[in-house]
Amino acid sequence: MIRSRLAATLIGATALLLSAGAQAQPAPKSVLRVAPHADLKTLDPVAASIVITRMHGLMIYETLFAWDANLQPKPQMVESFSTAPDGLSWTFTLRPGLKFHDGQPVTTRDVIASLTRWMKRDTIGGKLGEYTEGMEAKDDRTFVLKLKKPMALVPFALGSAVGQIPVIMREADAATDPMKPVTETIGSGPFKFNRAEWRSGAKVVYDRNPDYAPRSEPADGLAGGRVVKVDRVEWLIMPDAATAAAALQTGEIDIWEQPSQDLIPVVAAAKDVKVERYSNLANQVMLRPNSLHPPFDNPKARLALAYATDQAEFLAGGFGDEEWWKRCAAYFICGGPNGTQAGTEAYAKPDLDKAKQLLAEAGYKGEKLVLTTSNDIAAIGRMAEVAAAQLKKAGVNVAVQFSDWGTVTTRQQNKSPPDQGGWNLFVTYASGATMQSPMTNIGTNMACEKAWAGWPCDAEAEKLRGAVVDAPDDAARKAAVEALHRRLAEMQPYRVLGQFDQPYARRANVSGVLAAPVMLFWNIEKK
């Protein structure tokens, strides 16, 4: 479906090539104060796929394309583009006048270095990398992407706002080891990171970039004009939900990005507070095993997780009233274009005896398994405790280890054995926009060492994922997705725990929040 829409988009490419003329930035005189869902620890959105780092990345960096509210790619840093009749080369020309926060112009050298680094880390970037023969700069504004075989999803990939996003960094920053996070924060986006006022665990500050020239089109999701209407945005770190709720009600903060579900009725009833959704697709919850180490290096042990767990218990524990959640075993999201549940019928209901049998066949003998988690994101901490309780019923010896969320996400990248700083399990969730496509779903990438934390490895799944990309039409693509899903249901790169809607809460004098995979802070007005 995405590919067919993209084909229509490309047919009408002339209408989509956006003008280089930029609208003038207004001169707002206000500060937007936000309680985000977590503290910012990692500054590099190519090194980490976690939501808080992506939010940060989209504040200060830009991408060549950007997804609109319907997840369709539109030119962003690109002024114009074309593809050869054989589909084996794409030519892109950058908008004139793009420049980094330090005043350097953005050139194709920066673009090529940035895309090369991203292709080594991201799920859809890695797939694009497999198809790429090379990239060549024609001049400072024009470059050519050469492919080994056609891939219609190129603009979709280059506009990705999920996983590790393809932000354009300075060449010197992008040329560094892709496995080591970049600590510089010089982008070309609508906000500048205020490092001098950054206080880890307390405050993150972004100032409006006065030199930024937005596109002329209206804002639409991540696409269109990124017009900043406040002087600065302050993220005030409030891990205690009651504190954030009180701050919203008194006006000390303007937006609570992810209010705790159990406090939604309280804040919704408060004067001058509005509770709304900002995403068109539900989020997915997952229990992620580490496939590098026993017992989950064996797919039978991973499949045991499906038989041992009840989605409703997780979702009720994490998100309360069923108004906000639903059971769903689809890796690619119920309600999305690829939402099949094929192959999951056998474990629609828990079967502890089957779980114990599979664990024994996998060689598990009661060894301690480490589940790393945090109460910084209350729903995740509660669901981790549900996981421990349910797995203990299946005979699993689970040790739940709590720390701050930044430490958890850092530990997720540790490939060492669990008794040497590594881990066996964690609970997390991801946006529907991330999980709805085989090309962007970070958890179903089973490319071994190239996969996301947990590093599942299955050549057959990767072959089937490639067949989705290569499908010539919607019918073939649907069949390919179903075949892939059946394989995933058997190999269990992670246990799908269902899905939920995450609202945000704002003061009534705040408007302009855009529908997007993560919360965006341009287009927002504060009266």
Radius of gyration: 22 Å
Largest sheet: 7 strands, mixed
What structural class do the secondary elements suggest? alpha+beta
CATH superfamily of the largest domain: Periplasmic binding protein-like II
Count up the helices: 17
Number of domains: 2
Shape: globular
Return the CATH topology of the largest domain: D-Maltodextrin-Binding Protein, domain 2
Please give the CATH architecture of the largest domain. Answer: 3-Layer(aba) Sandwich
Helix coverage percent? 25-40%
β-strand amount: 15-25%
Q: How many strand segments? A: 21
- Biggest sheet strand line-up: 8-9-10-1-11-19-12
Write the layout of secondary structure elements.
Elements lengths: L1 H10 L1 H4 L14 E5 L15 H10 L4 E3 L5 E3 L2 E6 L5 E6 L13 H12 L3 H9 E6 L4 E6 L6 H5 L12 H4 L16 E3 L9 E6 L23 E5 L4 H10 L4 E2 L7 H5 L4 E5 L5 E7 L9 H10 L2 H9 L5 E2 L25 H10 L6 E6 L4 H16 L3 E6 L2 H8 L12 E6 L1 H4 L23 H12 L3 H18 L3 E6 L2 E5 L2 E2 L13 E2 L1
Parallel strand pairs: 1-10, 1-11, 15-16
Antiparallel strand pairs: 2-3, 4-5, 5-7, 6-7, 8-9, 9-10, 11-19, 12-19, 13-17, 13-18, 14-18, 20-21
Helix pairs in contact: 4-5, 10-12, 11-13, 16-17
